[in-house]
Amino acid sequence: MPQDTTRVAVDIGGTFTDLVAVRDGGLTLAKASTTPSNFAGGVLDAVEKGDLSLASVDQFVHGTTVVINAITERTGEATALLTTEGFRDVLDVTRANRPDMFNYQYEKPEPFVPRRHRWEVPERVDQAGEPIQPLDEDAVREAAREIRDAGFDTVAVSYLHSYENPEHERRTRELVEEVHPDAYVTLSHELTKEYREYERTNTAVLNSYVRPIADEYLDTLAGQLGERGFDGNTYAMKSNAGTASFAEARRRPVEMVESGPVGGVYGSAHVGRQLGEPDVVSFDMGGTTAKTSVVQDGEVTIDTDYWLESSPRDEGYPLKIPVVDIVEIGAGGGSIAWVDRGGSINVGPKSSGADPGPACYGRGGTEPTVTDANLLTGRLNPDYFLGGDMSLDVDAAETALEPLADAFDTSVREAAHGVLRVVNSNMANALKQVSIRRGHDPRDFVMVASGGAGPLHAGTLGRELGVKETVVPRAPGQFSAWGMLMTDLRKDFARTHVLPFDADTADEVAGIVAELEAEARDAYATEDVDEDDLVLERSVDLRYAGQEHTVNTPLGDGPVDASEVTSTIERFHERHERTYNFRLDDPCEVVNVRLTASAPMPKPEVESVVTDGDPADAIKDTREVDFATEGVHDARVYERDALPTDTRIDGPAVVEEPACTTLVHPGQTLSVDTFGHLHIS
Fold it and tell me: Which residues belong to any copy of the Acetophenone carboxylase-like C-terminal domain (predicted)?
């Protein structure tokens, strides 16, 4: 793809839909309200606000919450499961590991496919992939008829050890299609070729559960874009920090489960590289949720054992796919404050969303939210929200917070501070979960804060966490969409093959690597990607013999021979010690061989933005801002785009831009670098 193409990225959030377009070397930003009843409507509204001619757009990258919403709200399609005879209850057995052993009211998560919707099929292969019992084709046909007659249009197939030999699953799809040709059929081995039966089965189930919804949504969006003249390439943001074609995303929608937030993490890693800071804490606070992740040595942390809806009290649901390691909580500008039975203030996870939104939006919302609290403490300008496109109603915010104030016999202003303290505490805990609790020293990290609400809270959170400094990048309100434009096409391949990892098995490992590389090239052959452009990264999941858990360790680019195995083992020892604080002299085992295949995409040129001038010319106003324990101050209000390079501002101060507001506390200093990023220290 030529470098002078027009590229657009759109990220659907719970409250707003963000657009970033790169054309003629410039950046176009737009923000529109999300339309929950028809997400494509919000996308098209953002395109219209950006004044874009879709006929001139060559590349469209899309991050969506359609998949995660369908799962969390339980609005997916009723699914049938075909599994090996004797393994009907794998979704009920789960891992049998209660996260909170002292919770006597503990209940296992309810499976997405109830037991009555699961069919057993006589068939069996062993762990080496050798057939033990042939597939009973008549049983498959009979099950398919029952599934069809029961009204199921989505079918997940997960057979024991199909990751090693998938022939029975492939034949099952052929048989199901003979009987029920309109069914959506998901085969577990097409999503992952790793072992662990429960995780693999649940991944296949969730893919089937959301597939009709994602298929219809992406098809509708592509059609509406086409009606408006778009004839370029469409890509969906995946949870592995890469992108895939809409066609692939429709087949494997579960890979989009963290589609939107990943763009912000990837963008934070890029900002860190710009600044020469390889260790970054990414913090993104939007209208509905707050997301955080850690970037180490310039690399986004990706986990292949991801659990949806997990918490200290609930294990959640596993996904055996590569997902950027993100902690997400219900803490956004629209998060609703409420009082629990114990008389304490809580914030979230319920949100006012885009419709009706916070009370101050004036769209019928009546419950107190974080945005209402920020408005009543002077941190938001009621006349400059979304650059003045929307006026905020101060009286409505006060009315919404009055019941909260009455409950504690205090003023509305103090109630607003209570809301802000609670939401900041919740977000600080999430930040500590990805940093301190995982052995990282925050003083070695910078925090990149984005999202429409992130920079409002970043000064407080950066100080609480103790990071080196807090950075607010350019276009923070559309930062996740911007991050999507920095990504590449990416596919991940893995193969479970447990064997000793030493010089004697080097040839066997090399053979698996060669098979994965061939599979990757075949996968890209239909996507107009030059084979010479593919970037292949190889790694192995290693463990000490007798251990359960593994440490992912990179393989070198050269031949996988005895010398490379020796070098890889030493890297494993180092990584194991860094992760678990010890190493052993025991022999090593390989569990999984992995390959990441990426194809570079054109990206926005991020150049220095050196501007001259007097910082005083950027002052718009002076506004009274209540900083709670730091007192009430008359803070100067600056227009961000008017701030010259190398400006230094002592807090208290407020920096405004159309999609975001940055708050600088008393005792903090803000500076502007040559890329236009804001630094709070």
Answer: 505-680
User: Per residue in 654-671, pLDDT tens?
Assistant: 999 988 999 999 999 999
The pTM score is: 0.86
- Closest-CA residue to 575 (of 593, 555, 592, 557): 555
Asked whether the bond before 114 is cis by omega within 30 degrees of 0, the reply is no
Contacts 24+ apart (CB under 8 A), 614-617: 614/644, 615/643, 615/644, 615/647, 615/649, 617/642
Q: What is the 3-state secondary structure (H, E, C) of 237-298?
A: ECCCCCEEEHHHHHHCHHHHCCHHHHHHHHHHHHHHHHCCCCCEEEEEECCCCEEEEEEECC
Map residue 560 onto helix, strand or coil.
coil
How many angstroms separate the CA atoms of 3 and 26, rounded?
Answer: 13
Whole-angstrom distance, CA of residue 283 vs CA of residue 22: 24
CA neighbor of 336 nearest in space, from 315, 351, 357: 351
Say how many C-beta atoms besides its own lie within 10 A of residue 607's C-beta. 10
Give the CA angle between residues 518, 521, 524 to the nearest 5°: 150
In degrees and rounded to multiples of 5, residue 146 shows phi and psi of -65, -40
**CA 122 to centroid of chain Cα atoms:** 38
The region that residue 216 occupies, defined by phi over 0 for left and psi between -120 and 50 for alpha, beta otherwise, is alpha
Beta-carbon-side half-sphere exposure of residue 300 (alpha carbons within 13 Å): 27
Alpha carbon 611 to chain centroid, angstroms: 34
Query: In this structure, how many other beta carbons lie within 10 angstroms of the beta carbon of residue 507?
Result: 11
pLDDT at 119: 98
Residue 284 and residue 292 in contact, taking contact as beta carbons nearer than 8 Å: yes
| H/E segment holding residue 220 | helix 197-227
Residue 15 has pLDDT above 60, yes or no: yes
Residue at token pair 């499961």: 81
Alpha carbon distance 143, 121 (integer Å): 8
Q: Is residue 95 over pLDDT 80?
A: yes
Could you give the CA distance from residue 625 to residue 633 in angstroms, rounded to a whole number? 5
Pairing assessment for the beta strands 243-245 and 233-237 based on DSSP bridges: antiparallel
CA 350 to chain centre: 19
Q: What secondary structure does DSSP assign to 506-554, as a single string?
A: HHHHHHHHHHHHHHHHHHHTTTT--GGG-EEEEEEEEEETT-S--EEEE
Which residue in the block uniquely carries the two structure tokens 């004044």? 51
Residue for token pair 């997960």: 158
Q: Are 386 and 658 in contact (CB under 8 A)?
A: yes
DSSP-derived pairing of the beta strands 535-544 and 489-500: unpaired
- Alpha helix stretches (DSSP H) within 435-505: 454-465, 479-485
| DSSP annotation of 68 | H
**Preceding peptide of 358 cis, ω within 30°:** no
For residues 419 and 483, give the distance between their C-alpha atoms in angstroms, rounded to a whole number: 30
Question: How far is the C-alpha of 471 from the C-alpha of 469, rounded, in Å?
Answer: 7
How does strand 345-351 pair with strand 243-245? unpaired
> Which residue type occupies 335?
S
State both tokens at 662.
């940055």
Distance in angstroms (rounded) separating the CA atoms of residues 199 and 554 = 24
Q: How many residues does the chain have?
A: 681
452: its two tokens: 């429409």
pLDDT in tens, 151-186: 999 999 999 999 999 999 999 999 999 999 999 999
